[in-house]
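Continuing from the previous page of notes. For each protein in this section, the sequence appears first, followed by its C-alpha cells. Read the first protein now.
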Amino acid sequence: MNPYVAHKADREITTYEVTVASDIDTLTQCDFSAEQIVSLLGLRQRYQSGGSDRASVMHHLEFLKYLVMSGKMEK
C-alpha cells in the first residue's frame, strides 16, 4: 500500500474518532442517555451514508420522531 494513502486513511479514521468522541461528550452534557446517544449516532451514520431522496426525508423524520419521543423536543 502506498505510504501516503495509508497515512491519509489513518488521519481520516483518527479525525472521525475524535469527532465521535466530541459528539458523545456534547450529548452527554445535554443529559442524553447512552441508549439515546447510540441511536442518534446510528441515525446520523444512516443519514450520511446516503440513499434515495425518499430515504433522506425518512431519516430526517425518524430523527425528529426520536427527539419528540425522548422528550428533547415538543410537538
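Done with the first. The second protein uses the same format. Note its length before scrolling.
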Amino acid sequence: MRAARVSVELTLSERLARQIAAGGPISVAHYMAEANQHYYGTRDPLGAAGDFTTAPEISQMFGELIGLCLADIWMRSGGRPEAHYVELGPGRGTLASDALRSMASAGLRPRVHFVETSPSLRERQSALIPNVSHHDAVSSLPERGPLLVVANEFFDALPVRQLIRVGNEWRERVVVRPDPDEPDRFAPMAGYRRVESGIPAMAADAPEGTILEMPLAGSAIALELAHRIAKQGGAAIIVDYGYEGPATGDTLQAVRAHRYADPFLEPGESDLTTHVDFTMIGNMARQAGLRVTQTVGQGAFLRQLGIDARADQLSRTTPARAEEVEAARHRLTADDAMGTLFKAMAWVHPDWADPAGFEGS
C-alpha cells in the first residue's frame, strides 16, 4: 500500500531560493514583487499593531480634504451624476470612508471601486464600506462615467528595476542567496547582463556603484489609468513620498514594526518600498493627454485645502481632543514630519476644472 503524500507549503524564502538555484539570480523587481505580494496577502500591515501608519490613519482630516478637493473639481466640471470614486491600494478603507463622507456633504455620491488584491484587506474594506466593488487591476474598472481617483502610498510599493554602474556600463542589479546556512538572508549584487536602453542622459557618466531605479510597473499602471481618465473624464490625486526625477540612488527600504529593517532579510515579512519619481508619473499622464499640476509638498497641499481651519473647527467642537488634533496636523504638514518628504500631484481631464491645492501650477 502506498503511503499518502504530505503536502508541505514552502516559505517564501524557500521558494525564492529554489528559483535562484534553478535559474540563477533574480532581478530586484522580481524579488520586490514576490515579497510584497506575500506581505500584503497575509496580513493587515497598518496601525500600532502592524508595521506602519499612513496619513488617513493619523487623522480624518486627510481623507476629508481629499474628498472635498475631488467634489469641488466634479462640481466645477459639470457635476455628472454617474461618477466613480476609485482608490488604488486603499488600506483599510479609512481614507475612502472620510472622503466619501465629505463628498456626500457636497452632493456627490459616487459608486465606489477599490483596486486591491489582498484578501485580508478586502475583508476590512468591505466591513467599512459595504457597497464597494473590488478589482484586481485598473483594466477592470467601469468603462463609462468619470473616474475620481486617489492613490495614496500606492506607487511606492510597486516593484522597480534597479541598475548598477560597473565600469563604464550599466548592469541589472540582481538578488542571490549567498549562504545556504542563512536561509532567510538574501543579498543584491551586480549581474552580468549589460543594459543599454532607457538610461537617462543625466546618468550617462555616473560613477562606479551608482544605482539607477526604473519604475516600469508604476509607469505602466500610471499610463493605463491616465488613458482611462482621458477617455472617460475625471481626475486623479496622487500622494506619496518621492522626488522629481530623473535621479540616481538606491531608495529601496523595508519597514517592520514601525522601524527600518533589512530589505533582503526574511522577504515577505516587512513592507518594501522605493521613493516615487513624480516626474515619471506626470509624464505618463501627459502622454495620455491629461493636464498635470506641479508637484507640491503634502503640507502645502493640505494647507491650501484648508487643514488649519478644519483642525481649529475640530478642536472647538471637541476640546478634549484639541491636543490630538494639533499633533495630527503637525505630523501631516510639518517639514520635519510628512509635510515635505510626502508630495502630491493631480491629473485632470483637459475639459475639467483645475484642482484646488496646487495653486501656481
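What the second structure shows: The chain has a mean pLDDT of 95. The radius of gyration is 22 Å. We return to this in next week's lecture.
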